[in-house]
Amino acid sequence: MRIISGIQPSGELHIGNYLGAIKNWLELQKNSKNECWFFIADYHSLSEDYEPKEKSKEILDLATDLLALGLDPKKSVIFQQSDISDHAALAWIFNTIVKVSELERMTQFKDKVMVQKQNVNAALLTYPTLMAADILIYKAEAVPVGEDQVQHLEITRDIAKRFNTRFEKTFPEPKPILTETARVMSLSDPTKKMSKSHGPKSYIALNDSPETIEEKIKSAVSDPGGKGPGGANLLSIFKSFAVTREEKTEYEQFNKDHDAGKLMYSKFKPRLAELIAGYFAEYRKNHENLAKDPDYVKKVLEDGAEKASSIAQKTLKEVKKKIGLTI
Ligand code: ADP
Ligand code: TRP
Asked: Which EC number(s) are documented for this chain (predicted)?
C-alpha cells in the first residue's frame, strides 16, 4: 500500500499530533509491504500568519523531531514539500475542477477565517487542493491523519473522482487511516481539540521537560468527581500512553474510579505526567543528539526530495498529457 502524510512546520509538535497522526506513521513504516512517504508541508504553513525569519528553523526543527521519534529514512521517504514544485502545479490544475463553494464549506477554512481575520488569504481557501495534489501526485491510497483532516480527504476523493471522469482514470481514491485517539482535546478547554493555536498551556509539547509536563497536567481542566470532558480526555491520554501490562491495569483502575465519580486527581495527575515524560524519554535523548547534527537532517530531506521528485514529475507529465497541454 502506498501511504502519504504531511505536517505543517508551524510551532512545536504536541501529543495531539503524535497520538492522532505520527504514532500511525511509525506503525505503518514498520510493515515492509507499505511504501511510506512523509513530508513537511511548508507551503501549506504559509497560509497562516508567520515570521519569515523563523520559518527555516521551524522546518529543520520539525524534521529533527520526526527523526528523533523514529521516522526512518531507510524505510520511508522523508522530504520537504516546497522542494517538489510539481505539487503546486498539480494543485493549480485541481483548482480548475474544484468549486469555490466546495472549498468554502471546509470546517478548517471557516475556523481559520475567524482566527486570522486580518489575513484571509486565498491560500486558506485553496489549502485542500494543494493537499489533494500532495496525495494524488504519488497516487497514494491511504493517509494517516487526525480526525480534523478527514474532511480534506473527502474533498481529495471528490477531486480524484472528478478528474478520472472528466479526463481519464488516473488517480486512486485515498482513504484516511485514524488512530484510536484521532482527536485529543485541549488541556485548558476540553471542548476544543488540542492545537498549537490555543497557546502552550493547552497542549503538551514533545519537547516539554518532565517538570513542565507535570505543571501543565496539574493545571489541566478536570472535573472533580464528575464525568465531564476534561477528565475523559486525560483518561484517554493515559490509556494511549499505557504500554506495559502494569500501566494498562493502572489505567483500568483509574477509569473505574472515574466512572464511579471518585477519581482522585491528586493521585491520577502526577502519574499521568510521569507516564508521558517516561514515554518520551528516549525521544528526548535522540533529539539532543540529532540537534547537534543539522547537516545530517538536511541530507535526509535532500535525499527524500530526490526520490519524491522523480515520481511527482512522472505523474504531472501524465496529467498534462491527459488534459491536453502536451503539444
Ligand atoms: P495543529 O492543529 O496543532 O496546528 P496540525 O494541523 O499541524 O496541528 O496537524 C498535524 C497532524 O496532527 C494532522 O494529521 C492532524 O490531524 C493531527 N492533529 C492535530 N491536532 C490533533 C489533535 N488534537 N488530536 C489528534 N490529531 C491531531
Ligand atoms: N493539512 C494537514 C494538517 O494540517 C497537513 C497536510 C498537508 C497533509 N498536505 C497533506 C496531510 C497531505 C496529509 C496528506 O495537518
From this structure: 6.1.1.2
pLDDT tens digits for the chain (327 residues)? 999 999 999 999 999 999 999 999 999 999 999 999 999 999 999 999 999 999 999 999 999 999 999 999 999 999 999 999 999 999 999 999 999 999 999 999 999 999 999 999 999 999 999 999 999 999 999 999 999 999 999 999 999 999 999 999 999 999 999 999 989 999 999 999 999 888 899 999 999 999 999 999 999 999 866 678 899 999 999 999 999 999 999 999 999 999 998 999 999 999 999 999 999 999 999 999 999 999 999 999 999 999 999 999 999 999 999 999 999
Please check whether residue 195 lies inside any domain of the structure: no
Q: Do 21 and 110 lie in a common domain? A: yes
Domains of the chain: total: 2
Q: Which residues line ligand 1 (CB under 6 A)?
A: 7-8, 16-17, 19-21, 145-146, 148-149, 182-184, 193-197
Let me know: does 33 contact 75? Beta carbons within 8 Å: no
Measure the CA–CA gap between 57 and 145, rounded to whole angstroms.
24
The residue count of the chain comes to: 327
Ligand with the closest atom to the CA of 175: 2
Give catalytic status of residue 30 as yes or no.
no
Looking at the structure, tell me whether residues 274 and 140 fall in a common domain.
Answer: no
Identify whether 193 is a catalytic site residue: yes
Q: pTM surpassing 0.85?
A: yes
In this structure, the residues whose C-beta lies within 6 A of any atom of ligand 2 are 4-8, 41, 44, 131, 134-135, 143, 145, 149, 152
The ligand that comes nearest to the alpha carbon of residue 4 is 2
Q: How far is CA 31 from CA 26, 44, 172, 219, in A?
A: 10, 29, 21, 39
Closest approach atom of ligand 1 to CA 181: 25
Q: What's the gap in Å between 265 CA and the centre of ligand 2?
A: 36
Rounded to whole angstroms, how far apart are CA atoms 238 and 248? Answer: 9
Grid coordinates standing for 195? 492545537
Per annotation, catalytic residue among 74, 75, 139, 196: 196
Whole domain around residue 109: which residue ranges? 2-182+294-322
- CATH number assigned to the domain comprising residue 128: 3.40.50.620
| Same domain membership, residue 38 and residue 86 | yes
Q: Is 17 annotated as a binding residue?
A: yes
Which amino acid type is present at position 185?
A: M
